[in-house]
Structures are given as C-alpha cells and as structure tokens.
C-alpha cells in the first residue's frame, strides 16, 4: 500500500516535471568522450540537432563524466517522463538493462550494444563492413603497394576495424602491404593528434601512400600529416573529406546520427519498436562519402569496385570477417 | 606554536574553510559569467550531494575512493615523499581484487573472498610502488618522476591483460566477466536498516576506508615506525644521524602508500563494478593529492576533504543535469578551483593570519 502510494506520488511528480518541460521530450546520455569528441558522440549529437531542427523541439542531454553516473542519469530522465531515453556507447549496457527494468513503460534505446528487454531498442553497427570498403579503395588508390592504418586505443572494436581494412585491401591485391599502428593503450590515445601525425609520418616513411585513421581526435593529426606529405588519408565516423580537400580519399561514416534520429522519430510517431537493429552497408548504417572534395581522387573504376563490394556485402555474397564473432583475423 | 605560529584550530580549521570560500567565490563568478545564478547553483550542488538518500550514497561512494587515495598520498608526505603514482597503484590493485574474486566467487560467500581481495589489492598496489621506492632509496631516482612513469606502465600492462588475456570472450568491451555473488561486497543499504541510498553503490568498502584511516593514524603517530617516518620527513639528514635507515623508511613508507592506493580498487571493483574493466581509476589517484593537501595529511582532515570532493563529484553531476548551461567541463573548472585554492594557494591567507594572531595574542610583546 505504501509502495503504491509512493509510486503514485512519483508519478505525479514526473507529470508535473514533464509538464514544465513539454511532455515526452526525448533524452540522450552521451558516453564518457563527451558530445564534442569529433567522432562517435558527435555523430550522435548530429542526429540530435537534426531532430531538434526538423521537429522544433528540445532534446534533454547529459554527458557522462564517469560510467558510474550512467544509471543515475537514465533514471533521472525516465522519472521525469522523458521518452525515449537513448544511451550512447556500450559501457552503458548494464545501466540500460537495469533502468529498463525499473521503468517498464518508458522506451529506451542503446547504440553499440545489445540489451535484451521488451522496452529497449538496440542499434549496433558492422564497422568491419565499412572498413572493408576503405581497404578496397585504399589498395586501388595506392601506387606504392603499401597502405597504412593508424588506430586509437588498442581495443577489440579498433582491431575489428583493422581486420576489415586488411581484408578489403587484400581483396584487390593479395600482395599489398598493410602497415598498422595503435596510438596507445589509454583513452588518451583517442585525443593525441601529435602522436597520430608522428605515426602517420613513420608509415609514409616506410612507403605507405594511403593511410586510414580510426583514432578519433588523434586521427586529425593523421590526416594533417598525410596532407602535408602530399599523400592520401581516409577519414572515419563523420565526413572528413573537407578537412584537407584533395588529400582525403574518402570517409567511412558510421551513422550513429541516423540511429539516434530513428529512435527519436519512431517514439514521436508512436511506433517505437524494441529489438535489435544491425546497421551495415546494406541499410546505410555504414557508408563511404563521395563529394566535391574527393571526386577528383576517386576514379570511375574505384567507384564501380566499391559499389560492387557494397552490393556483394549487402546481398551476403561477400562475408566480411568479424573478429568478435569469428575469431582472429585471417592473414593471407 | 610550532607549525607556523598559528593555533591548531586556525591551521586545521580556519585556513581550509577560508580557502574553500575563496574557491567558491571565484567559481560563483564563473557561473555568473555564463549567465546562471550562482546561489541557485550552490543550492542544487548541496541538494544533489546531501539532499536525498541516493545523493548521499553517491557522495559517500566517491568519498570512499578519495579516502584511500588521500591516505596513500598523506603517508608518503610524512616521509617527505611525493607519491603521485596512486593512479597506477590503484589500477594494479584492481588486478589483485579481480584475481581473488574471479578465483573464489563461485565457491565461497563474499566474506571469505573479501580478505583475499583486500590482501590482493594491497599487495599489488604496494608491489607497484616498490620499484620506484627502491630506485629512490638506492639510486636516488626521484619518486615524482618514477611514480608518474609507472602510471603509464600500469595503463599499458592492464590494457594488454584486459584486451588479450582476461577479456570475456566475444565481448566488445575489454573487461572480465561479472563476478558472482561471492565476489560482490554488500551494499551499505543491505546491512544498515532504515537507510535508503537508492541505486548508489556505496558499500562495505566505506567502513574499510574508515578503519584504514584509524590504522594510518595509529601507524604514523603511535608507532616507532611512524616516528621514524615523520622524523625522516622533517629532516632526512638529522634522521640518518639519529640512526634511522633511509632505505628502510623510504621503502616501507612507499609500500604502505601503494597498498592504500591499491585498496581503492576494493570499492570500485568488488563494491561497485563487479568486474575488472579499463580505466576504472579515472583520476581518483590524482585527486587524492588534493585531498591529502586539503586534509593536512591527517586522517580526520582527509576523511572530511574526501567527503567534500565526493560532494563536488556527486553534486556537480546533479548540477550539470539540472542546468544544461553548466556543462560537465564547468564542473571540472569548479573542482579545479577548489584544488587550486586548497592545494597550490594553500599559504595565501597564512601570512595575514599569522600577523593577525600574533598581534592579537601578545600585543605587549609586539610593542615591547
């Protein structure tokens, strides 16, 4: 009885609060990198902005400072009637599981991890597929027969990207050399442009003439060094073609913005669907960018090959190895 | 009137309070500058950290971490050593905790696992402090340099272990499996009746931290070893002349210091996360330096300073939640100001106070 009373009271509290903040504003909790991390979170933020512009509404935001805050933030939003509550980043999975249990009538979404609950939509990406296209384009653009990869922190998700890149490159030329370096072993490895530039220069010194960055903020240095040396770079996460026009071969986008936008919009339209959505090349969850900044670099032949690979992967004819499910990366 | 000719209550009470007020005044100006009401901000900060059960729980949870790392820095201070490797020592301490929990959690209840986890944390933390200590004692390599280097080595080692060896197969995140009940410390709300800390992970480690504070007090002020440590810290040359072995003091002090830092992992790993994961220390080791400075390297002061920083962490989170204009970076600015005023500008008000108290105490002497 006491419990019921407390719940009713909490419900009223939520109603009053929600009333002041316009009913059912969506909410988002960014992961520890912060919403201006220049890559993953910022892509989510782009989705937030697009939604705010399209529907003339506000989105409540919170940036985690440490993982311990995640559950607290999710509960805060849910208890104030914000819906859906979107969590960015796999580190929030256990918190989303818990919060979804406590607020069964609120819809939640999580990006980059699967949470199995009746009120949670999970969005995960096949980064390895995007990386495959990057490897393929890099190998075709390379004149020296050596391409490079600069990763951020040495963690499985980056290694998976590397594996896709290697496979893509080898699909063009089985003898191609793929140089790779990781920038470090702490999260600082995602925010060290000087180190990124240094690694890129060393790879250029060893003959690489196309280098991809999978290193967040560190990658800005990679692209800078590549442009300075007059060779080619490949951007990731968001469209980085415009950073150094003529020196960025393409960008491999991970459409976190689409995932965020989709979850907000479906909830707004009342057709929010829980369950897992795996986004890859087939559904535009990953894509590669061709625009005014790089069209002079990409030949018709490369476009045809990339399109063929996208089709092949989408139809399942080409299967890109995923180190998380399929084990260690096959070496040719 | 030994330390700086000031009464103890001024030294340990008034000066920290003055520093804190100065820090908050400057923070208030910053908040005003971005167009928010500073009084409102203070209200949210206090309410968020002390106003409701869950807030108090989180404040105490963060405070537990700061007590351990603060004590670690303080013990080293007393021997004139500046251990800024708490970050790495706590990180490696997590390894000791995880080994104990992963090995035992299937077979025994938590209270059997706990002593092993505690020992693991302390031994691993101490071991990580041992090499810098030995290098300082035998080779004169400065601990400030070596301990901070060891933070990076710890990060590299843990990254290697978690990515390649200890990772749960198929997991996207480099972390071990979640411990079973036998590897989880009970939350405080489970055995303190009538208290509701909500979802706050404050746990038994808080009690361990308080016991550790008492132990540090006993060691530093009530044992022969503590006397040697303090004597060595006050004047190393005189201590050696008096027959105190510098190698022994440096090594033992650093082992205690490292062990205390390592025990922070008990709170995070066994008390809250229930799995070993990357970067769980996230700066607690460094904030421990500020806590020790502010707490005047005394356990009572450290506990109080730890609670203050716990309030800043928890209240700060609530503040950035309530006021989107005050971002989490602003919260770091406020924390930074507190550290600046309490640590670096520690002596700012001191000369004025000394003048004031000397004058008001013995005007006759002054005149004569």
Automatic annotation (TrEMBL), chain A:
<keyword id="KW-1003">Cell membrane</keyword>
<feature type="domain" description="ABC transporter substrate-binding protein PnrA-like">
    <location>
        <begin position="33"/>
        <end position="304"/>
    </location>
</feature>
<comment type="similarity">
    <text>Belongs to the BMP lipoprotein family.</text>
</comment>
<dbReference type="InterPro" id="IPR003760">
    <property type="entry name" value="PnrA-like"/>
</dbReference>
<keyword id="KW-0472">Membrane</keyword>
<keyword id="KW-0732">Signal</keyword>
<dbReference type="InterPro" id="IPR050957">
    <property type="entry name" value="BMP_lipoprotein"/>
</dbReference>
<dbReference type="Pfam" id="PF02608">
    <property type="entry name" value="Bmp"/>
</dbReference>
<protein>
    <submittedName>
        <fullName>BMP family ABC transporter substrate-binding protein</fullName>
    </submittedName>
</protein>
<dbReference type="GO" id="GO:0005886">
    <property type="term" value="C:plasma membrane"/>
</dbReference>
<dbReference type="InterPro" id="IPR028082">
    <property type="entry name" value="Peripla_BP_I"/>
</dbReference>
<keyword id="KW-0449">Lipoprotein</keyword>
<feature type="signal peptide">
    <location>
        <begin position="1"/>
        <end position="24"/>
    </location>
</feature>
Automatic annotation (TrEMBL), chain B:
<keyword id="KW-1133">Transmembrane helix</keyword>
<feature type="transmembrane region" description="Helical">
    <location>
        <begin position="300"/>
        <end position="319"/>
    </location>
</feature>
<dbReference type="Pfam" id="PF02653">
    <property type="entry name" value="BPD_transp_2"/>
</dbReference>
<feature type="transmembrane region" description="Helical">
    <location>
        <begin position="90"/>
        <end position="108"/>
    </location>
</feature>
<feature type="transmembrane region" description="Helical">
    <location>
        <begin position="250"/>
        <end position="269"/>
    </location>
</feature>
<protein>
    <submittedName>
        <fullName>ABC transporter permease</fullName>
    </submittedName>
</protein>
<feature type="transmembrane region" description="Helical">
    <location>
        <begin position="12"/>
        <end position="35"/>
    </location>
</feature>
<feature type="transmembrane region" description="Helical">
    <location>
        <begin position="276"/>
        <end position="294"/>
    </location>
</feature>
<keyword id="KW-0812">Transmembrane</keyword>
<feature type="transmembrane region" description="Helical">
    <location>
        <begin position="114"/>
        <end position="135"/>
    </location>
</feature>
<feature type="transmembrane region" description="Helical">
    <location>
        <begin position="55"/>
        <end position="78"/>
    </location>
</feature>
<feature type="transmembrane region" description="Helical">
    <location>
        <begin position="142"/>
        <end position="162"/>
    </location>
</feature>
<dbReference type="GO" id="GO:0005886">
    <property type="term" value="C:plasma membrane"/>
</dbReference>
<feature type="transmembrane region" description="Helical">
    <location>
        <begin position="331"/>
        <end position="349"/>
    </location>
</feature>
<keyword id="KW-1003">Cell membrane</keyword>
<dbReference type="GO" id="GO:0022857">
    <property type="term" value="F:transmembrane transporter activity"/>
</dbReference>
<keyword id="KW-0472">Membrane</keyword>
<feature type="transmembrane region" description="Helical">
    <location>
        <begin position="200"/>
        <end position="220"/>
    </location>
</feature>
<dbReference type="InterPro" id="IPR001851">
    <property type="entry name" value="ABC_transp_permease"/>
</dbReference>
């Amino acid at each position: 009885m006491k419990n019921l009373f407390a719940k009713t009271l909490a419900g009223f509290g939520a109603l009053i609060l929600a009333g002041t903040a316009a009913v059912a504003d969506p909410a988002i909790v960014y992961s520890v990198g912060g919403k201006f991390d220049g890559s993953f979170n910022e892509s989510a933020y782009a989705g937030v902005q697009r939604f705010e512009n399209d529907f003339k509404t506000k989105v409540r935001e919170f940036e985690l400072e440490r993982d311990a805050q995640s559950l607290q933030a999710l509960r805060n939003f849910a208890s104030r009637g914000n819906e859906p509550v979107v969590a960015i980043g796999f580190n929030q999975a256990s918190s989303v599981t818990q919060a979804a249990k406590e607020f069964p009538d609120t819809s939640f979404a999580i990006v980059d991890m699967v949470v199995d609950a009746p009120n949670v939509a999970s969005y995960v990406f096949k980064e390895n597929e995007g990386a495959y296209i990057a490897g393929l384009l890099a190998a075709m653009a390379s004149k020296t027969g050596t391409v490079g990869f600069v990763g951020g922190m040495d963690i499985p998700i980056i290694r998976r990207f590397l594996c896709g890149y290697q496979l893509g490159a080898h699909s063009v030329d089985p003898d191609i050399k793929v140089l790779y370096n990781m920038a470090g072993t702490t999260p600082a490895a995602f925010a060290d442009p000087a180190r990124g530039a240094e690694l890129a220069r060393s790879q250029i010194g060893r003959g690489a003439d196309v280098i991809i960055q999978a290193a967040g903020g560190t990658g800005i240095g990679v692209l800078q060094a590549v442009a300075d040396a007059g060779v080619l770079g490949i951007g990731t996460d968001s469209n980085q073609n415009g950073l150094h026009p003529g020196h960025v071969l393409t960008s491999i986008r991970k459409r976190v913005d689409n995932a965020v936008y989709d979850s907000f919009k479906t909830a707004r339209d009342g057709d929010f669907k829980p369950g897992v959505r795996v986004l890859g090349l087939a559904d535009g969850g990953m894509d590669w960018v061709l625009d005014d900044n790089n069209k002079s670099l990409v030949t018709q032949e490369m476009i045809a090959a990339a399109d063929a690979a996208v089709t092949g992967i989408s139809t399942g004819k080409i299967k890109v190895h995923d180190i998380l499910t399929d084990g260690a990366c096959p070496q040719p | 009137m030994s330390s700086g000719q000031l009464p103890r209550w001024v030294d340990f009470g008034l000066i920290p309070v003055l520093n804190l007020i100065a820090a908050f005044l400057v923070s208030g100006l910053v908040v005003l500058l971005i167009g928010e009401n500073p009084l409102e901000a203070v209200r949210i900060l206090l309410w968020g950290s002390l106003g409701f059960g869950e807030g108090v729980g989180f404040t105490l949870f963060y405070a537990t971490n700061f007590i351990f790392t603060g004590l670690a820095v303080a013990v080293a201070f007393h021997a004139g050593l500046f251990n800024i490797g708490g970050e790495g020592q706590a990180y490696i301490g997590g390894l000791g905790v995880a080994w104990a929990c992963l090995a035992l959690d299937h077979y025994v209840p938590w209270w059997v696992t706990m002593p092993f986890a505690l020992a693991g944390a302390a031994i691993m933390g101490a071991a990580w402090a041992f090499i810098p200590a030995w290098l300082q004692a035998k080779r004169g390599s400065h601990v400030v340099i070596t301990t901070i280097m060891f933070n990076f080595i710890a990060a590299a080692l843990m990254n290697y272990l978690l990515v390649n060896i200890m990772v749960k197969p198929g997991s996207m995140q480099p972390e071990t499996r979640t411990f079973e009940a036998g590897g989880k410390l009970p939350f405080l709300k489970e055995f303190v009746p009538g208290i509701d800390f909500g979802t706050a992970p404050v746990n038994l480690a808080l009690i361990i931290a308080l016991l550790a504070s008492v132990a540090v007090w006993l060691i530093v002020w009530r044992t022969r070893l503590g006397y040697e440590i303090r004597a060595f810290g006050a004047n190393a040359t005189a201590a050696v002349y008096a027959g105190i072995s510098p190698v022994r003091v440096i090594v033992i002090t650093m082992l205690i210091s490292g062990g205390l830092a390592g025990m922070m992992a008990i709170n995070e790993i066994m008390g809250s996360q229930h799995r070993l994961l990357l970067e769980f220390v996230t700066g607690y080791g460094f904030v421990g330096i500020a806590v020790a400075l502010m707490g005047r390297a005394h356990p009572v002061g450290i506990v109080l300073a730890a609670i203050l920083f716990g309030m800043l962490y928890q209240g700060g989170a609530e503040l950035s939640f309530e006021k989107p204009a005050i971002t989490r970076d602003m919260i770091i600015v406020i924390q930074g100001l507190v550290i600046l005023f309490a640590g670096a500008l520690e002596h700012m008000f001191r000369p004025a106070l000394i003048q004031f108290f000397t004058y008001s105490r013995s005007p006759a002497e002054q005149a004569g």
